[in-house]
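pls design
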């Protein structure tokens, strides 16, 4: 899977990029046919609580899967977005396998 990370209104550190890449790559456990993943991290202005937004789009055969979460940290938002995508991937896999 190819993971593309885009940061808007800030410069993401290598540690943050590695964290997000690792989280997204773990989604392949639930569905192996993920083609690409696009992650957009946005810093919402003005500076307030819950001003970090992560949007993840997964390209799979069929319709793309999408999750967007806002939290106090980018790591927390990425965790929540990946959890939502896990559920979507499990449902997709069940639908394809005919369960």
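designed seq:
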């Amino acid at each position: 899977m190819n993971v593309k990370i885009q940061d808007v209104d800030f410069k993401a550190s290598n540690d943050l990029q590695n964290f997000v890449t690792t989280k997204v790559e773990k989604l392949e456990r639930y569905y192996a046919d993920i083609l690409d993943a696009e992650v957009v991290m946005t810093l919402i202005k003005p500076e307030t609580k819950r001003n970090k937004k992560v949007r993840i789009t997964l390209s799979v055969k069929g319709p793309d899967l999408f999750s967007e979460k806002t939290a106090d940290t980018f790591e927390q938002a990425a965790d929540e977005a990946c959890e939502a995508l896990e559920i979507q991937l499990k449902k997709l896999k069940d639908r394809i396998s005919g369960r």
